[in-house]
Each structure stands twice: as structure tokens, then as C-alpha cells.
């Protein structure tokens, strides 16, 4: 398999974690990314494969797929063991729902923090507006973390075994860390879950690569990575 990924692409890194957890060999092609120009110039293969022009793109023989969720579903069907989806229909649906919560709901306030890793605008007023937006987003992220803490409950896990939802939520919380969002300390069970996943080689490798990519590509962010062990 061939995966088109990006150094700071949280969706492509979701797929990388799944591939590593399933011990599937793959060739990784990193598309170019800078804070100044984003993904431009676009990778030509990605442009042809994905009408949205986005990574991840997975090629498996004649099959070319885009969108991390579709790719994860394919990997689950094509390479079922070790499973990254629960067994029962209800739990599988709950897993898909939680993955979507991460990918489409948690991403919203995170986007309001992303300016922090890019070049600082000259206009101080614009910067102050961004900072106000970030403060509001931080409150929303803290509320989301509290909700996730409730879902985790005393059991401290979303499902009996590792799932695509764990991967998606981990990526969002990792990005919250790198962007200097709220610490997880207010939700100890979520923090413990995050720390436990960080010990798995697949998660640790991606976390460390992203941290390294930040050192090379991003502006330093005050208070970044507060909960890193
Ligand atoms: N829903 C898509 C989102 C993919 C996505 O947003 N990819 C970003 C990188 S994390 C990208 O390629 N952005 C470039 C762009 O949107 O122009 C997925 O899950 O794969």
C-alpha cells in the first residue's frame, strides 16, 4: 500500500496509526507542507486522486481512496485483525459516531488555534481578534473534554479494545496540545487515557514525528505540549 500523508496532517496521521496498529506494511509519501503556503504546490497524485485535493490518499493496487474515515473502514474490511472496530452493530455505530465527533466537531474549535503555528500577522488588531477567538475556542475544547471524560467514565475507555474512535480523538487532543489548548488535567480520566495510548508504539511514533515536524515547520507556541510525558 502507498499512503500520501502530510507532516502535520491530523487526518493522514490517523491512517498512519491504524496501519501501524494493524502491522500493515506501507510506503509513505509525504506531500509538501509549509506554514506559509500550506499544501501548495499541491501534490499531483493527490490532485488526481481526491477532488478535494487533500491528504490522506491511499493506494492499494488498483484501488485509490481518499478520506481518513473511508480509508479506515477499508482497512478494517481488507485487514480485519487486529480489529479497530467493536463487534456488535450498536457498538460499531457508537464507534463511528465518536470518530465523526472527533473529525467534524472537535476540529471546529481547534481550527481557531491553528493560526498560532503560522507566521504572525503584522496587524496587531487582527492578532488580538485571533487571540480572543482562541480563548473562546479553548473554553469549547475544555467543555468537549469534560463530555469525553463522562463518556469514558470510571472504566476509563471508550470501548473494550482500541478503536478508530480512540485514534481520531487522540489526534484531536494531540493537536490541542501542540496548539497550546487547555490542559487535560481538569479531566483526569481523559488524561490517563491519553497517557496510556501515548505508550503504544504506533501512537508514540506519530506523536514524536509531529512534535519533530513542529520544531522544523511551525512557530513556537506558548504552553504547547503541556501534558506530554
Ligand atoms: N475529511 C477528510 C479531511 C482531510 C483534510 O482536511 N486534509 C487536510 C490535511 S489534515 C488537507 O489535505 N488540507 C488541504 C486543503 O484542504 O487544502 C479526511 O478525513 O481525510
Give an overview in words.
- This protein is of the alpha+beta class.
- The chain has helices at 10-21, 44-49, 68-78, 89-111, 124-152, 164-178, 188-198, 201-217; strands at residues 2-5, 27-30, 57-60, 63-66.
- The protein is globular.
- 34% of the residues are buried.
- The model has no long low-confidence stretch (mean pLDDT 96).
- Glutathione binds next to helix 1 and helix 3.
- Glutathione (GSH) is lined by residues 6, 9-11, 39, 53-56, 67-69, 103.
Task: Write out key terms for the chains shown.
229 residues, binds glutathione, Glutathione S-transferase Yfyf (Class Pi), Chain A, domain 2, alpha+beta, single chain, 4 strands, 8 helices, 2 domains, Glutaredoxin
Total count of domains = 2
In the CATH hierarchy, the architecture of the largest domain is Up-down Bundle
CATH class group of the largest domain: Mainly Alpha
Helix content: 40-55%
Question: Spatial order of the strands in the main sheet?
Answer: 2-1-3-4
What is the CA-based Rg, rounded? Answer: 17 Å
Major β-sheet, in short? 4 strands, mixed
* Terminal CA distance: 32 Å
Strand content: 5-15%
Helix and strand run: EHEHEEHHHHHH
Bound molecules: glutathione
Structural class: alpha+beta
Shape: globular
- As residue ranges, the low-confidence spans are none
The helix count comes to 8
The strand count comes to 4
What is the CATH topology assignment of the largest domain?
Glutathione S-transferase Yfyf (Class Pi), Chain A, domain 2
Mean pLDDT: 96
